[in-house]
């Protein structure tokens, strides 16, 4: 009797979806604002913005929309490979595919020029 009762309880739970999981994924790609679909790095700053490095610039995501930055916004190069976020202030350092660097001070981007003396 106990085995039959246990079997019925498990059967009812299984048919009600108690053992199933569902996942809700949202795809972020160029159709909703990224400059391209391939991403090289992702970091979150202390203000909650998500920074995304792509071969066509860097994007800042605020949870609703993307703002894209390119060499027209003073990046040293569009092809951004790495992101470093300074934990002590708002500066963000971007490494580019050609070896150049850009820094964001919380307001604007600046190219970092290294003298090769």
Mean pLDDT: 87
Assess the beta-strand content as a share of residues: 25-35%
Number of strands: 8
Oligomer: single chain
**Helix percentage:** 10-25%
C-alpha-based Rg, rounded: 23 Å
Low-confidence segments, given as residue ranges, are none
Shape: elongated
* Main sheet summary: 4 strands, antiparallel
How are the strands of the largest sheet arranged? 1-2-3-4
Distance between the termini: 88 Å
Specify the structural class.
mainly beta
In N-to-C order, the SSE pattern is: HEEEEEEEE
Give me the number of helical elements: 1
Task: Note down, in words, how this protein is organized.
Strands 1-2-3-4 form a four-stranded antiparallel beta sheet, with no helix packed on it. A four-stranded antiparallel beta sheet has the order 5-6-7-8, with no helix packed on it. It has one helix at residues 2-15; strands at residues 41-44, 50-54, 57-61, 66-69, 80-85, 92-96, 101-104, 109-112. 12% of the residues lie in helices and 32% in strands. The N and C termini lie far apart (88 Å). The longest helix has 14 residues, at 2-15. The protein is built from one helix and eight strands. It is elongated. The protein is mainly β and 117 residues long. The model has no long low-confidence stretch (mean pLDDT 87).
């Amino acid at each position: 009797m106990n085995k039959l009762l246990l079997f019925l309880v498990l059967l009812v739970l299984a048919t009600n979806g108690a053992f199933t999981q569902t996942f809700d994924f949202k795809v972020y790609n160029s159709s909703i604002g990224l400059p391209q679909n391939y991403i090289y790095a992702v970091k979150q700053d202390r203000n909650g913005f998500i920074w995304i490095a792509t071969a066509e610039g860097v994007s800042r995501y605020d949870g609703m929309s993307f703002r894209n930055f390119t060499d027209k916004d003073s990046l040293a190069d569009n092809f951004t490979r790495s992101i470093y976020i300074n934990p002590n202030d708002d500066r963000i350092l971007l490494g580019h595919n050609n070896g150049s660097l850009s820094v964001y001070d919380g307001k604007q981007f600046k190219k970092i020029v290294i003298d090769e003396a």
